Amino acid sequence: MCNVNNKELKVSAIKNGTVIDHIPAENLFKVISILGLENIPNQVTFGTNLESRKLGRKSIIKVADKFFEDAEINKISLVAPQAKLNIIRDYEVVEKRVVNVPDEVVGIVKCFNPKCITNHEPIVTHFAVQSKQPLELKCRYCEKVTTEKQMEIIK
Ligand code: CTP
Ligand code: ZN
Question: Going from the N-terminus, what domains does the chain have, and what CATH number goes with each?
């Protein structure tokens, strides 16, 4: 069923693939970029500024014929910690998944320390996750901690 209880879908249902729901509206394009969705041949549809009781305004992304690995999808926890994944097969939701903050973050985030080598040389950033809530990332190169508030997404 794709249209139960007369609920109107704001973005068309998909036959097979992944629906990423409950993305904070302001982070939609960060999620698209982190997952590299601008470079894949799959059909991608999204809606933004949809009403959500939990988030106020949310975004949703639907990627046809794509099923993400945990390590790949967990990267979006940095900008969409409350995201819910719905795995769709033959129009039915067959699985729901949440995202988890990984123990290490490679790339994606800029080191907050202006003197860090990663801000001067073409070196991919690498952090150990020191705290998941609130997020604190410790740089492998300069050992400075980048907090959630200071976090800037690179890609
Ligand atoms: N969905 C879709 N295509 C389908 C089936 C579902 O795009 N063939 C989308 C729905 O629009 C919804 C999400 O997948 O955004 C989850 O579907 P469902 O579990 O049926 O909706 P809810 O019960 O509203 O989910 P939840 O409350 O867990 O967010
Ligand atoms: Zn650093």
Answer: 14-98 (3.30.70.140), 104-153 (2.30.30.20)
